[in-house]
Amino acid sequence: MSYNLFDFLQLIGSLGIFIYGMKILSDGLQKVAGGKLRSILKGMTKNRFMGIMTGFTATTITQSSTTTTVMVVSFVNAGLLTFLESTGVIMGANIGTTVTAWMVSIFGFRFQITPIAISMIGIFFPFLFVRRQKLRHMAEAIIGFGILFIGLEFLKDSVPDIQQNPQILAFLDRFTDFGFLSTVMFVLVGTLLTLMVQSSSAAMAITLVMLAQGWIDFHIAAAMIMGENIGTTVTANIAALVGNVHAKRAARFHLIFNLIGVLWMMLALPYVLLFIDYMVVNFTPAQLSILDESLEARINATLGLSLFHTTFNLLNVLFLVAFVPYMIRVVEWLQPSRGAEDEQKTLKFISAGLMPTAELSIDEAYKEVELMGRIAEKISFSTYGLFFKDVSMRQKFLEKIKKREEITDRIELEIAKYLTSITEMNLSQQASLRVRSMHRMINDIERIADIYYQVSRTFDRMVSEDITLPGDANEEIADMMQLIQDALQLMRQNMAGEYGVVNMNRAWLMETKINAFRDELRQHHYRRLEQGDYDARTGIFYLDYINRLEKIGDHILNVNEAAAGLK
How far is CA 30 from CA 121, 204, 419, 437, 534, in A? Predict the structure, then answer.
């Protein structure tokens, strides 16, 4: 055998170039899509067939069914998608992944694309340094496309030649004569291969190369492709481990759906292969059977394998789409809910880790930022209750304010860590600016919670010292709190909108009102001191309240400006 360790390392390196090219291609396409990808995913409806189209489109854009299904699991965990809605998207993702197979089999085996790929890299490489963002991202995607096919060419050259290494074929032949058992064995091989390379597309490329080089026959390659359909479900199931019950069910559905598809296809495989052979013989220029063993026939068989992959996934969706309600019942039985905590549909302090793409990781983080905004608003309500509700409720309000302020401290730390991890990804300029804005927002929201907590401590000390404010001073503080509450509601509305699209005129007007009212209350404070309505000690408490509340207004304006992309 003339195949040594150095040859094997070249094979691994070639595979690495292929996977790296696919990653650059995927990242570039996702950056070009940008907000459109989010719009596609957020536009998912309860219509199962629309969900299938959504999954197909998202996978075509991301060039990875794993990316799509992990996104779906995260969206279900966040409550942005129901388990039922996710099923259609998962089925569509299975069809979408066949696009990569066609791309590889057509350009990688039917044409000498390597010289073209290198020329494309040469043409588009300078565009990586232009100022126009969209052009840079398009260049990145095209360069990734080129690297992918250079890696595929290296992969084809690195695979041992069967003529010079007949021992390999003899070894594989031992496992191909067991009939149905051989099919089961190579389904498992395909599954393990996908788990090792962590990419069904890369596993499929290896299978195509093995078929083209004559290592395996078409029947074995088809079995491996089926196994790769099972292997691609593992990543989403791992991502769902830290999710709620709905996320786990979405991941389990993907596994069960693909398993059922593989089981019925294993039984129908001889008949499906005859159909594929007929299609290849009658509808390709070469007119060579995929069952032949000549080099031309093996190259032709790569198209047949892509056709098999597409036929398998299309038929699986067509056959099983009507049985989705029953499959959902099975999944719910296998993955029962353990109570209210398991049903929680919020992102619990970003516990699920980074998303497959920077854009969607930012979306997940922003949900937590919005959660911080809601908590700050609740602290505002509790502070008002502390001042003006029943005296018997004071201790309860104090505890609520303290607890929620501690929560904002914890969320700020977790979001900051998460955003730091995102910055290590390949970010677009727009995404980078948004991450910086979110850092600013969480800092200001945390400060809002801190100041409210300080106000509550000041109030508690004032009560313990048996100091009370005159009626008109209390009314003024109530009015100031209401003005701040209105500003908080406006802030939350701006945060809920699209990044960069904020009506800052209202925010600036609100800030002007708060500052003007603060100045007016200071004049009232000095007049009361002069008239002896309260002593200096009481006045200090009063002045402390209005100054701190005005400071909250400043932080609210900062959040609005960050949401608008101004800071």
Answer: 19, 22, 19, 21, 64
Domain ranges of the chain: 5-334, 358-563
Question: Does residue 180 have a pLDDT over 80?
Answer: no
Rounded CA separation 352/224 (Å)? 31
Nearest residue to 155 (alpha-carbon basis) of 294, 17, 350? 17
Residue with tokens 């677009």: 428
Task: Report yes or no: 353 and 417 within 8 Å, Cβ to Cβ.
Answer: no
Tell me the percentage of the chain whose pLDDT exceeds 70: 80
What topology is assigned to 358-563 in CATH? Methane Monooxygenase Hydroxylase; Chain G, domain 1 (1.20.58)
Q: Which residues of 218-246 are buried (b: 16+ CB within 10 A; e: fewer)?
A: bbbbbbbbbbbbbbbbbbbbebbeebbbb
| The model's pTM | 0.64
Rg from Cα positions in the chain: 31
At 279-291, the pLDDT tens digits run 777 666 555 455 5
Residue type at position 72: V
For residue 561, the 8-state DSSP code is: H
Mean pLDDT of 125-142: 82
